[in-house]
Design a protein that fits this description.
- The chain has 166 residues and is α+β, with helices and mostly antiparallel strands.
- It has a single domain, classed as Roll (Pnp Oxidase, Chain A), CATH 2.30.110.
- The protein has a 6-stranded antiparallel β-barrel with strand order 1-2-3-6-5-4.
- The protein is built from 3 helices and 8 strands, in the order αβββαββαβββ.
- Helices cover 20% and strands 39% of the residues.
- A hairpin with an 8-residue loop joins strand 6 and strand 7.
């Protein structure tokens, strides 16, 4: 299906738009899998710190159980037309061991601090290794905007875009 009037964005525009969405969006779909229990997908609040996605969920959740058994995850922003998919490995931080700056930034964004809750929570950090972004069929070609943890076509320091998430 071709969307009328949609001009494909170049890689720098896709990267810019992706970083802007990571900075401003609230929810991400987190997909995990367990060798014995299979796949699991759940929407979670997230915060982008300019390098990694930070999420938080209950310590006894299926998401945490799966990540501990298999840290490879996929994340998706919730828009089926303006697609952003991230792939990487997750790392779990119990709420009493999370880096304070990450927990404080998460609490500031959402007005909720899981460290103040009665039950234990786990912060999940995902540094993307691959990011794909596209809007409809015209952008399927060239949809990889990050490969092996490096933004595709990213300028060298001092040559173009300032770092995002700062």
């Amino acid at each position: 299906m071709r969307i009328m009037g949609t001009e494909p964005r170049r890689t720098p525009e896709r990267r810019r738009d992706t970083l802007q969405r990571l900075d401003t969006e609230r929810d991400v779909w987190a997909s995990t899998a367990h060798p014995e229990h299979g796949p699991h997908q759940v929407p979670l609040w997230f915060r982008w710190d300019g390098h990694a996605v930070w999420m938080c969920t209950g310590a006894a959740s299926v998401t945490v159980r799966n990540i501990r058994a298999e840290p490879r995850v996929r994340l998706a922003l919730p828009d089926a037309f303006d697609v952003v998919l991230l792939q990487g490995e997750a790392e779990c931080f119990p709420d009493d061991r999370v880096p304070p700056d990450a927990a404080e930034a998460f609490a500031e964004k959402f007005g909720w601090d899981p460290r103040a809750e009665e039950g234990p929570f786990v912060y999940v950090r995902v540094v993307p290794r691959t990011v794909r972004a596209w809007r409809g069929e015209p952008e399927l070609r060239g949809r990889v905007v990050m490969r092996d943890g490096t933004w595709v076509g990213h300028p060298r320091p001092g040559e173009g875009d300032p770092p995002a998430g700062g």
